[in-house]
Amino acid sequence: MIVHPFVRFALRTWSFALRTPLLPTVIITAGLALAACSRAPEEKKVEPKGEQGAGKVTISAEAQARFGFATARPQRIAPVRLIEATAAIAPDPARVAHIAPLAKGRLERVHVQVGDSVNRGAPLFEYDNIELGEAVGDYLAELADLQKDLALLEHHREMLDRARLLLEKEAIARKEVHVRETEYRVAEATVTNRRAKIGRVKEKLHRFGMIEEQITALSAEHDPSRLRQASPTVVRAPISGVIITHEGAPGEVIGPEKALLSIADLSSVWTLVDIYEKDLAQVRRGATADVSVEAYPGETFHGTIGYVSDLIDPQTRTAKARVKIPNPQRKLKLGMFATVRLRAQVTNGTATVVAIPSSAIQRVDGEPSVFVKLDTDTFEQRKVRLGLTSGDLVEVTEGLKGDEDLVTTGSFSLKSELLKERIGEGN
Question: Does the pLDDT of residue 29 top 90, yes or no?
Answer without folding.
Answer: no
